[in-house]
Structure formats: C-alpha cells, structure tokens
Write a structure and sequence with these properties.
Distance between the termini: 22 Å
Helix content: over 70%
Low-confidence stretches: none
Shape: rod-shaped
Strand content: under 5%
Structural class: mainly alpha
Order of helices and strands: HH
C-alpha cells in the first residue's frame, strides 16, 4: 500500500476513534454531574470499560500515524 494512502487511512481511523472516545467521555461526564447532584446516575462499569477501550484504540491509532510519518521522513536511497 502506498505510504501516503496508509497515512490518510490511519488519520481517518484516528479521527473516528477520537470521535468515539469523545462521545463516551461526554456521556460519562453527564452521568458524573448527575451523580454530584444526587440524581443517582452513577456511570456503569460497562460505560467506563468502553471508554477505557476507546482510549486504548485512540493511542494505538496515534502510534500508527506516528510510525507512518516516521517512515515518510526516512530518505530513500537510490541504488
């Protein structure tokens, strides 16, 4: 696969995982505010685990993009 196409694909996936993590974090924050207000809205363990997984996915995508960028920075030797 072309390195530029790999980079674009990885950046697209990075954006998707970032959006997913943001949605989950928003939900967690809303539940936390409700809990503080004594509305008995404590985040579920499932929601917290989903957020943790989303963060892990986000970190992996960041590493993927960094690796591709590093490959693009390596000068190509002509033989």
């Amino acid at each position: 696969m072309d390195k530029k196409l790999s980079l674009l694909t990885s950046i697209t996936e990075l954006k998707r995982t970032h959006d997913a993590a943001s949605v989950l974090l928003s939900g967690l924050m809303m539940e936390a505010v409700r809990a503080v207000r004594n509305e008995n809205a404590v985040p579920t363990l499932k929601t917290v685990r989903q957020y943790r997984k989303a963060i892990k996915d986000l970190k992996l995508q960041c590493l993927q993009v960094e690796m591709i960028l590093a490959e693009l920075d390596i000068p190509q030797h002509v033989h």
